[in-house]
Structure formats: C-alpha cells, structure tokens
Design goal:
About 35% of the residues lie in helices and about 25% in strands. With about 100 residues, it is α+β, with helices and mostly antiparallel strands. It has one domain. It starts with 6 loop residues before the first strand and ends in a 19-residue tail after the last helix.
Length: about 100
C-alpha cells in the first residue's frame, strides 16, 4: 500500500494548475480529455510539462478513456513512479526555481 499523499488541482507558478500532485515524490499527474487533442491545447500542455520538468517534477499523463478502460494499469504506472527513484532529485534547501508552487 502506498502512503504518499496526493493533492488535487495544485497551482504551479502563476499560470499552471496540475490535476494531481505528490509533492513528496515530485510527481505530477495530468488527466487529459478529448479537448487536449487539439493542436493549441497540445502546445499548451507541452509548455506546462516543460515547466514542471524544469522544476524537477516527473509528469505522468493519462487520457480519460485510459482510466475508464484500464484503471488498474494506470494505478500500477503511478505506483511504479512512486517507488522508482526520481531521475531529477529534488533541489537542496534554498535551491530550485519552484518557489511559489505549493
């Protein structure tokens, strides 16, 4: 069982909100519906993901229909992300660029 805490609708910086975030593991989870298939939204999603990665967060994206059709698979992906070491360890105290995120 995982004891990590996730928060919902977490503000990041001045213009981004993450669907779910586990601050302790620096994990952001984004859920995308069909509206995210458009080009302008995809570009905005890329900018948001780049921002999160630049601030040492791992980002997982799931389509809503993935959750509907394979919830166990999505949960396993999240579980593996939690137990795996982060490729970008969090900055030491006083370092980092995500001062206003949480």
């Amino acid at each position: 069982m995982c004891d990590e805490q996730f928060r919902r609708q977490v503000p990041f910086g001045e213009k981004y909100i993450v669907d779910f975030c586990c601050k302790n593991k620096r994990l952001a989870i984004e859920l995308d519906g069909s509206q995210h298939s458009g080009k302008s939204i995809s570009e905005q999603d890329k900018l948001k993901e780049d921002y999160l990665v630049a601030n040492k967060y791992k980002v997982l994206r799931f389509w809503n229909n993935e959750l509907d059709n394979n919830l166990e698979g999505a949960l396993e992906t999240i579980r593996l992300a939690i137990i795996s070491p982060h490729p970008n360890p969090p900055p030491q105290a006083g370092e980092g660029r995500l001062q206003d995120a949480l």
